């Protein structure tokens, strides 16, 4: 069956932006990776962070953890006090692919990201390549997140997309799985080289 792709949708964190809270907490815990892992697996967890991605305010999220774990208040507050330092920079090889796609001008380029509405403006100011997108759906603005179906509905309806004409690139396979349920072609991102091969496989040349 021929795949006719007209729109390419990118995830941001882990695909185009290198973001990781470990970059901050390695300094906090003087390079002790065991302490970093324990803190991020038990206190400022990914599940806790996902609630901010879905619209919970930073103030509410921080107060919640401080009330639950007052002995770790200083470390908890560091999460957002130094949040910008968790942004190591662009994943340049993938950004280069995005730039080439933009220059070719054959496809609509969109982004669908799980990101707090309060911190996303920092990324917009810092990363010039985000201006290459026709539009960006930010989970924190929408009060929902991947892989929940609602955010895919928002993407498709807002930009009047036919799912069979879209390819979605994400480093989280759960997010790809939901996209495929909508009929969107999904690429589970592992590296820029792997992404390029997958795009070539569906006749998108870069």
Please provide a written account of the structure.
It is a single chain. With 206 residues, the protein is an alpha/beta fold. The protein folds into two domains: 7-16 and 91-201, 3-Layer(aba) Sandwich (Rossmann fold); 20-87. It has eleven helices and seven strands. The chain has helices spanning 22-28, 33-42, 46-53, 58-68, 73-81, 92-104, 120-126, 139-142, 149-158, 173-181, 192-201; strands spanning 7-10, 17-19, 87-90, 108-113, 135-138, 166-170, 185-188. The protein has a five-stranded parallel sheet, with helices on both faces. A two-stranded antiparallel ribbon has the order 2-3. Helix 7 (120-126) links the parallel strand 4 and strand 5. The protein is globular and about 55 Å long. 29% of the residues are buried.
Topology:
Blueprint: E1 7-10, E2 17-19, H1 22-28, H2 33-42, H3 46-53, H4 58-68, H5 73-81, E3 87-90, H6 92-104, E4 108-113, H7 120-126, E5 135-138, H8 139-142, H9 149-158, E6 166-170, H10 173-181, E7 185-188, H11 192-201
Parallel strand pairs: 1-4, 1-6, 4-5, 6-7
Antiparallel strand pairs: 2-3
Helix pairs in contact: 1-2, 4-5
CATH class of the largest domain reads Alpha Beta
DSSP strand content: 5-15%
Oligomer: single chain
**Quick one: CATH superfamily of the largest domain?**
HAD superfamily/HAD-like
Q: Strand sequence of the main sheet, in spatial order?
A: 5-4-1-6-7
Number of helices: 11
The profile of the biggest β sheet is: 5 strands, parallel
Reported by name, the CATH topology of the largest domain is Rossmann fold
Strand runs, count: 7
Q: Termini, distance in Å?
A: 22 Å
SSE order in H/E notation? EEHHHHHEHEHEHHEHEH
Poorly predicted runs are: none
Helix proportion range = 40-55%
Going by helix content, strand content and strand pairing, the class is: alpha/beta
Shape: globular
Mean pLDDT: 97
Task: Please state the CA-atom Rg, rounded to the nearest Å.
Answer: 18 Å
CATH architecture assignment name of the largest domain: 3-Layer(aba) Sandwich
Q: What is the count of structural domains?
A: 2
């Amino acid at each position: 069956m021929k795949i006719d792709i007209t729109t390419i949708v990118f995830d941001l964190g882990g695909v185009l932006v290198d973001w990781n809270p470990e970059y901050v907490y390695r300094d906090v815990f003087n390079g002790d990776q065991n302490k970093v892992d324990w803190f991020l697996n038990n206190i400022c967890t990914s599940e806790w962070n996902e609630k901010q991605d879905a619209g919970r305010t930073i103030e509410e999220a921080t107060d919640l953890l401080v009330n639950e774990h007052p002995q770790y208040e200083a470390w908890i507050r560091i999460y957002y006090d130094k949040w910008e330092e968790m942004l190591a920079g662009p994943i340049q090889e993938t950004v280069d692919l995005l730039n080439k796609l933009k220059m070719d001008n054959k496809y609509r380029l969109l982004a669908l990201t799980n990101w707090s509405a309060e911190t996303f403006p920092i990324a917009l100011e810092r990363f010039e390549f985000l201006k290459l997108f026709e539009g960006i759906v930010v989970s924190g603005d929408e009060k929902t997140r991947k892989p929940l179906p609602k955010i895919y509905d928002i993407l498709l309806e807002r930009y009047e997309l036919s799912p069979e004409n879209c390819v979605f690139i994400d480093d989280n396979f759960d997010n790809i799985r939901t996209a495929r349920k909508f009929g969107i072609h999904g690429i589970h991102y592992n590296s820029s080289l792997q992404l390029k091969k997958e795009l070539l496989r569906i006749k998108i040349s870069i």
